Structures are given as C-alpha cells and as structure tokens.
Amino acid sequence: SALLLFISIMTMFMSGVVAIFEYDLKKIIALSTLSQLGMMMFSISLGLYELAFFHLLTHALFKALLFLCAGILIHGAGNTQDIRSFGGLSLNFPLVTVCMNLANLSLCGVPFLAGFYSKDLIVELACQYSWGIFVLLMMFICLSLTVLYSVRLTYLSFVGPYGGGTSISVCESDYSLVGPVVILSFTSLVSGPILSWLNFPAPVLIFLPVFLKWGALFFVGVSLLVMLSLQGLTYSYKWGVVSKFSGLMWFLPW
C-alpha cells in the first residue's frame, strides 16, 4: 500500500504540473482525468475503497460534461484545440460557458457541487492517517494544482483577450449537442448528495483539528486567488526549460 500511495501521489503531482503548462484543450482535460485517477488510487492505498468508488461515480458525471463542452468549443472554434486561439468565448457560447465552469468548479471541489462530496471526504479521512507531513502536504499541493489549471483553462478560454481564432455560436442552437450538456450540468449539481446518501446511509462524524478541517477549502481559495493574479503574466514570463519539460509530459512519451 505504501508503494501505491507513493505512485498515486506522484501521478497526481505530475499530471497537475503538466496541465498548467499545456495548451491543448483535450490534453488538459485528459491530464485532469489522470489526476483524479491518482486521487482514486490514493484513496484505495489508504483502504478507502468505497470512497474511491464514490469519487469514480461523481467524477464520471462532471468529467463527461467537461469533455462534451470541450467538443462543442472545438467544433465551434473552427476545429482548433489550442486554447491560445480562444479567448472571450463566453460571448459566443454563454450556455456552454456556464456548464463548463460548473464542471470545472465541481472538479476543484467547490462546496455543494458533486466533486466536493467525494474529494473532501477523501481528504478529511486521509488527514486521520499517520503517514507523516510529506503525504499530507503533497495531497494539499495536488489539490491546489487542480484549481490552478482549471482557473487557467477558464481564463484563457472564456475571460481572457481574444486569441484570433474563428468562432461561431451556431452550436448552441443544436439541441442534440446542448441537451446532454444541460442534463449533465444538472447531475453535476445534485449527484453529490444523492450518491452520498445512497453509498453511505449512516452519517459519520470526522473529528480533526481546525487547520486540517479547513485545509482543503483554504488551499482551493488561495490557489484560485493566486492563479487569477498570475493570468496577466501568462505571456510575459518565459519559463524556458521548465515549460518545455512540463509541456512534453516530463519526456514520458519518449
């Protein structure tokens, strides 16, 4: 279990760092999936099998929503996947913007969305284990990385300056595209408590020190503020070797 714990934490860390330097929309979401798979393996390594399954179910709903929204954006932006050519898409795709941001917030573990119920439970129960400060710190850092790449994706796609790509808003008039997105958005809102009641019929109290109890939300909030303040520096900073190393997935494909 110690080996699985180490591999799962390093998987979460690697995929989170790489996603921050990635510009391909589908690759960012795929790396996000890898990060959440690491979270499930982390849960299994602690013996929390039911929680890993619970996170698998909630993650399936909001990640399906993310991929569908990404497909609509790519289709509507002239078949480009580079988020640098997006920018200001919230004007052309208001409904998809709302749904995709809902999925992103759920992924980050914002309270009362689907992802919060499973991720926060895994984090709080992990805090009760005596693996040492390194495991706890890495877990919170990986949580922060999730928020960082999600905010970056949202900013560059919907809020940031126009990137020069073509965009058409006709996609949102196609109900066969938008219908599943709206349904999955609804499940991303309500599936957390419903699945929680189904999986864990008996309530459980988790007693932790205040700084650990609020640790997850604190890291989510700080990461959100940090990434928003850094967005203006996205193109002015040249990361050089770090950017190349991370952008090529730590040379793992080679």
From TrEMBL:
What are the subcellular locations of this protein?
Mitochondrion inner membrane
Question: What does the record give as the organism's lineage?
Answer: Eukaryota, Metazoa, Ecdysozoa, Arthropoda, Crustacea
Catalysed reaction equations from the record: a ubiquinone + NADH + 5 H(+)(in) = a ubiquinol + NAD(+) + 4 H(+)(out)
Q: Where is the NADH dehydrogenase subunit 5 C-terminal domain?
A: 149-253
Task: Report membrane topology.
Answer: Multi-pass membrane protein
Q: Tell me the superkingdom of the source.
A: Eukaryota
Q: TM spans, by residue? A: 6-25, 37-54, 60-79, 91-117, 129-151, 177-198, 204-228
- What range(s) does the NADH:quinone oxidoreductase/Mrp antiporter transmembrane domain occupy? 3-140
Q: Which GO terms are recorded in the biological process aspect for this UniProt protein?
A: ATP synthesis coupled electron transport
Leading EC class: translocase
Encoding gene per record: ND5
Give the main localization category: mitochondrion
**What is the organism field in this record?**
Daphnia pulex (Water flea)
Keywords, comma-separated and alphabetical: Electron transport, Membrane, Mitochondrion, Mitochondrion inner membrane, NAD, Respiratory chain, Translocase, Transmembrane, Transmembrane helix, Transport, Ubiquinone
Q: Which InterPro entries does the entry link to?
A: NADH_DH_su5_C, ND/Mrp_TM, NU5C-like
Q: Pull one GO CC term from this UniProt entry.
A: mitochondrial inner membrane
**Which protein are we looking at?**
NADH-ubiquinone oxidoreductase chain 5
Q: What does the record give as the function of this protein?
A: Core subunit of the mitochondrial membrane respiratory chain NADH dehydrogenase (Complex I) that is believed to belong to the minimal assembly required for catalysis. Complex I functions in the transfer of electrons from NADH to the respiratory chain. The immediate electron acceptor for the enzyme is believed to be ubiquinone.
Coiled-coil stretches noted in the UniProt entry, renumbered to this chain: none
Annotated EC: 7.1.1.2
List, in alphabetical order, the Gene Ontology terms for molecular function in this entry. NADH dehydrogenase (ubiquinone) activity
